[in-house]
Amino acid sequence: MATKEELLEKLKEGVVEYEEDTVKEASQQWLDDGYVALDGIMDGLAAGMEIVGDLYDKNEYFVPEVLMCADALYGGLAILRPHVPDSEEGINAQVVIGSIQGDVHDIGKNLVKMMFDVAGWDVHDLGRDVPLENFVEEQLRTDSEVVAMSAMMTTTMLGMKKVIAMIKEKNPDVAIMLGGAPVTKDVANLFGADGYAESAGNAVSEGIKMIGRLREMRAKG
Amino acid sequence: MAELTPKERVMRLLKKEPIDTMPFFSGMGMVVMPGIEKSGFNFATVHTSAERMAWSAIHSAKLMNFDCVVIPYDMTMESEAMGNTISLYEDSEDILYPTIPNKIWSTMDEVVVPDKIWEKGRLPILKEAIKIIKENAPELPIGCWQLGPFTQAGQILELDVMLKGVFKQKEKVGETLDKLSDMIIGIGQHLQEAGCDYIVLREPGVAADLLSPKTFKEFIQPRLTRILAGWKSPKLLHICGKTEPLLSMMAECGADGLTVDIKCDVRKGREILGPDVLFMGNLDTYTMTCDEKTPVQTSIDHIKDMIDGGVDAVMPGCDLWPAIIEENMKACVDTTHEHGKKASPAVGRL
Fold first, then answer.
1. What is the Cα–Cα distance from B215 to B245, expressed in whole angstroms?
2. Of A59, A63, A187, which has the smallest distance from its Cβ to B286's Cβ?
3. Looking at residue B292, which CATH number applies to its domain?
């Protein structure tokens, strides 16, 4: 029988090496052996994704690899997440996420969504090609703390500016995160956004850092 | 010597022959709201009629003093001709380009390129638009473009199918890219026969922040090379995003010149390519031309810096966003013409 450490290593390695079946098996084993599901998510799957983030930052991994790692992670998350009691979810927060109208690309959006999923947020995914007012309505309906929007094309990016203005007018406390290929830090600042992720991959490393911080907080707590 | 027409200027530049001053031109969208308004059409309707496309292009170029016209404006013509339905956003108050919201195919096996695709969907209007532009603005060169096969695949399939396929289904990815490359060669040849003066192969989906340079070399470079070999000159290659790691490989693809966007440092790019490669870029198409907070002087400095950094022509790094601030846009064009009177690395002056 594998030890706890060996199983964690398997979860981590499985994500890094994008071996979805290994991750699924190790996740099931983790539960069968009676370990805490959230530990498997944070110290196994999320820890693996942190390594993926490093590999991306070092230009050893690119978007295809990250997408496959994400598939492996989701394979494990689907098994472990249902066994995490609500009270144990490290964070009790909500995010509205989507690709802006006119933009049918959603790779970056889906990667960022994964980070929120892993971290235990309630994710309200509006999908892609989302009319601007839907972001505002969904934020108001759910009272989400964060609205995350992505645009892959310069030509759709300007819609974000309108959404930010509409949301901030109604609820100035909402944190807004922007991402997508044409969005630069300057643009995010000009638009009045609170957070920024440069590209699908950068969203990954930013998101992973966020998970890293949550893991640290959890370890201290 | 008398001043060259924009067409003479661009066509000479593309052959690296001496010119009077640096042109401001592009191989990607150059249609802007003042031009669309002058032609009296709504943005959502300029994609579907040769007449509207041609006149919005001509007016945009003439009002802004651009050294070219470029058609088409949107990236969905081929995908639509293959059977997908486009969304034109006719009811939106915003300027939105057509998209394919839902694709009919979900796997690479399903992809079928119809014979003579240039006769299908909206593609025939390009030939007609070229004719109208030639008749009404003979002094302007006409640029046309085709997406590269990887980016085009993202218009007909979900892009993650291709991205993951690079590892999981290498052979299938190769076959799909080959199929699309044949189509791209065919459409390009058809556009050249119709009278387009230069053609750009734009492949933004393969930048080094998405795919590894290794994947570029294995999957993309051979196809780009084959496509460019299938077209006559002048022909350019454009890649958006992080391109510095790819520039040497881009230079081997057989294009007459390379163009890049703001994520490429032109000084570094020039250093990598050396002085002989025709190298163009990389106007920031939001901050410098659309942001009302950008002082005109900042746009002017941006252009001067680009020219001093070693470009042979100023080109927008991407499609120009149509909602330009006219003063900034005109300043960018005028500065290119004024500051570009001295020879650039690859092109001399008359």
1. 12
2. A187
3. 3.20.20.210
Question: What is the predicted ipTM?
Answer: 0.87
DSSP state of A103: -
- Which tokens belong to A128? 């892609």
Strands of A175-179's sheet in order across: A122-125, A94-99, A146-150, A175-179, A195-197
State how far the alpha carbon of B197 is from the alpha carbons of A79, B202, B236, B262, in Å: 58, 16, 12, 26
**How far is the C-alpha of B178 from the C-alpha of B195, rounded, in Å?**
26
Q: Does B291 touch chain A (CB under 8 A)?
A: yes
Q: Judge: A67–B100 Cβ closer than 8 Å, yes or no.
A: no
Interface of A with B in 19-38 (CB under 8 A): none
Distance from the Cα of B129 to chain A's closest Cα (Å) equals: 23
Q: Tell me which chain A residues have a C-beta less than 8 angstroms from the C-beta of B205.
A: none
Please state, in angstroms and rounded to a whole number, the distance separating the CA atoms of residues A88 and A84: 6
Q: pLDDT (tens digit, 9 = 90+) per residue, B150-201?
A: 999 999 999 889 999 999 999 999 999 999 999 999 999 999 999 999 999 9
User: Pick the residue with more confidence: A201 or B157?
Assistant: B157
How close does chain A come to B154, measured CA to CA in Å? 9
* Inter-chain CB proximity A158 and B160 less than 8 Å: no
Longest CA–CA separation in chain A, Å: 57
What is the tens place of the pLDDT at every residue in A132-148?
A: 899 999 999 999 888 88
- Domain total of chain B: 1
CA distance B344 to B276: 10
Check A107 against B99: CB less than 8 A apart: no
Containing domain of residue B302, as a range? Answer: 6-339
Nearest by CB to A155, from B167, B240, B319: name it: B319
Amino acid of residue B249:
M
Is B293 among the domain residues? yes
* A166 backbone dihedrals φ, ψ, rounded to 5°: -65, -40
Q: Which two tokens stand for residue B211?
A: 């795919």
Instruction: Report the residue from A67, A68, A102 with minimal CB separation from B99.
Output: A102
CATH superfamily name and code, A94-204: Cobalamin-binding domain (3.40.50.280)
Euclidean distance between CA atoms B26 and B48, whole angstroms: 22
Tens-digit pLDDT profile for residues A150-184: 766 665 677 788 888 888 888 888 888 776 655 55
Query: Is the Cβ of B153 closer than 8 Å to some Cβ of chain A?
Result: no
Domain ranges for chain A, please list them. Answer: 4-89, 94-204
Whether B244 and B272 have beta carbons less than 8 Å apart is answered as: yes
Pick B318's closest partner by Cβ from A64, A65, A154: A154
Which listed CATH number (3.40.190.170, 3.40.1390.20, 1.20.1740.10, 1.10.1240.10) goes with A4-89?
Answer: 1.10.1240.10
